[in-house]
Write a structure and sequence with these properties.
The relative contact order is 0.11. The chain has about 260 residues and is α+β, with helices and mostly antiparallel strands.
Length: about 260
């Protein structure tokens, strides 16, 4: 701008969603997160969700350019202690969004919750001089209010791809005495990734017990079945039905009768 201020102009992709509602929903969500929940979200300066009578001839959002730099630019250079501090900064989400269990016996878990399900590196802006400080969170277009068992419960930027740790929150062990240099590097990487997920789960368990309970549910037999149900279009119905039979023998501990 003429005064040196930088802004971001957004125009939705034609296949991004339903006309009008795509832009209007994102603006409403950002306003709620910024002004009601005091989340570090860019300010919206101007917007128009109607093409008719619009000189731009498109839906648009003009918003504040978030201060700082994307987390992706600094994540790999952070020390492990700084990464733990970064997770602590995300406690905002664990406190705002208790989890849901699909059980009528626990009505406090059967409500919808607002959840940013795309907390990847590029959507979190950090203070480059103080890398544990979050300055802004962007990309609120696809945010939904829905049961959290159907959301991404661990931040995507953690990048943990190992087996679920279950309820074992003990400190990971590292033994590289019998490994060569290449194997050691792999072991160090796996150790750091597991240490981060354990640290995250410990923080969630302490700060937001319902969130932690939902994580446990998502890794239960019932939770896995719900996850499988979302993959019918990818795996095919026959494959899906075959996968449903796998956990049948484990269903005894579930609160509902196995449906097949």
């Amino acid at each position: 701008m003429d005064n040196g201020k930088e802004v971001i102009g957004k125009v939705p992709n034609p296949n991004a969603g339903i006309p009008h509602y795509t832009a209007a929903s994102e603006v409403a969500t950002m306003d709620f997160m910024r002004n009601t929940l005091q989340t570090p979200v860019p300010e919206v300066y101007a917007w128009n969700s109607r093409i008719e009578g619009n000189s731009v001839r498109a839906e648009y959002i003009i918003m504040e350019k978030s201060a700082g730099i994307p987390l992706a630019h600094i994540w790999n250079s952070l020390k492990i202690t700084e990464k733990f501090n970064k997770l602590a900064a995300l406690d905002l989400y664990s406190q705002l969004l208790p989890m849901l269990l699909p059980s009528e016996s626990e009505p406090e878990l059967n409500t919808g919750h607002l959840w940013h399900n795309d907390l990847q590196y590029e959507n979190i802006y950090m203070n480059p001089d103080k890398p544990n400080e979050i300055l802004g969170i962007i990309d609120w277009q696809a945010v939904e209010i829905m049961p959290l068992y159907d959301q991404a419960l661990d931040p995507a930027f953690l990048g943990y791809e190992g087996p679920d740790i279950g309820e074992d929150l003990s400190r990971p062990k590292l033994d590289v005495t019998s490994l060569d240099e290449v194997q050691k590097q792999v072991a160090y990487k796996n150790f750091d990734e597991k240490a981060l997920i354990v640290g995250w789960r410990m923080a969630v368990k302490a700060k937001s017990p319902d969130h932690y309970k939902a994580i446990q549910f998502s890794n239960s037999t019932a939770g896995h079945l719900l996850s499988l149900s979302k993959n019918i279009s990818i795996l095919g119905e026959a494959h899906f039905r075959a996968l449903l039979l796998d956990p049948r023998d484990e269903w005894g501990s579930a609160s509902r009768k196995f449906p097949l």
